Amino acid sequence: MWETLVEGGIMMIPLLLCSVLVLALVFDRGFALRRKNVIKPETEKIIEKIQSNVDINMALSLCRENKDTFSNIVNAALETQSSSSQEIKEIIEEQGRQEVRRLEKGLVILETIAGIAPLLGLLGTVLGMIEVFDVITIEGLAKTAALSSGISQALITTVAGLSIGIFALVFYNYFTNKAENLVLEIEKNSSRLLQKIQKF
C-alpha cells in the first residue's frame, strides 16, 4: 500500500491530506447531524404538553439544560414570549439561521474536496505523462521500466483523485439532504410552538 502511494508521486501528498480531511468531516457530521443531537425528544414532548405559563417555565428550564439546535430556538422564542407574535417569529427565524449555520458546518469543505480531488488526480496524471515523455526524449522507447513508472504514477493519482472525489460528493449530498430535512422538521415544530405561545 505504502509503495503504491510513493509511486503516485508528489501529488499523492495533497490527495492524502484531502482523504484524511474527508474522513474527519464524515465522522464529525455523521455524529452532529443525528436527529437526537439536533432535536431532542424531551424538548419535543414538553412543547406538546404546553398548556399554561407553568409549562412554559418548565420548557424554558429544559431548553437551558439542553444545548441542541431545536432547544436553542425554543429557548429564544420562550424568553421573548411577552413580545408580539411578529417579533417572536422574527426571533425564531434569526435564531434558526444561526443554528442552520451550525448544522451546515464543514459541508462547504466537503463540497470543495469533491471538486478539487479529481483535479489534483488529473494534475498528477499530467505530471506522470510529462515524466514519460522526458524519458522517451532522453532514452527512447527502449527503457520500458522507466516508461511504466511514469504511466503508473499517472494512473495511481487519477484513481486516488476520483475515489476521494466520489466519496466526498456522496457524503456531501447525504449530509446536505439530512440537514435540510432536519431544518424542515425544526420549522414545523417552531410553527407549532409559536401557535401555542400566541394563546398565552
Write a brief caption for the model.
The protein is built from 9 helices and no strands.
Task: Characterize the structure shown.
- With 200 residues, the chain is mainly alpha-helical.
- It has one domain (2-199).
- Helices cover 86% and strands 0% of the residues.
- It contains nine helices and no strands.
- The protein has helices at residues 2-7, 12-32, 35-38, 41-48, 53-65, 69-79, 85-103, 107-139, 144-199.
- The longest helix has 56 residues, at 144-199.
- The chain starts with a helix and ends with a helix.
The portion of residues assigned to helices is over 70%
Tell me the number of helical segments per DSSP (H or I, 4 or more residues long): 9
Described by strand count, sense and barrel closure, the largest sheet is: none
Low-confidence stretches: none
How many domains?
1
Structural class: mainly alpha
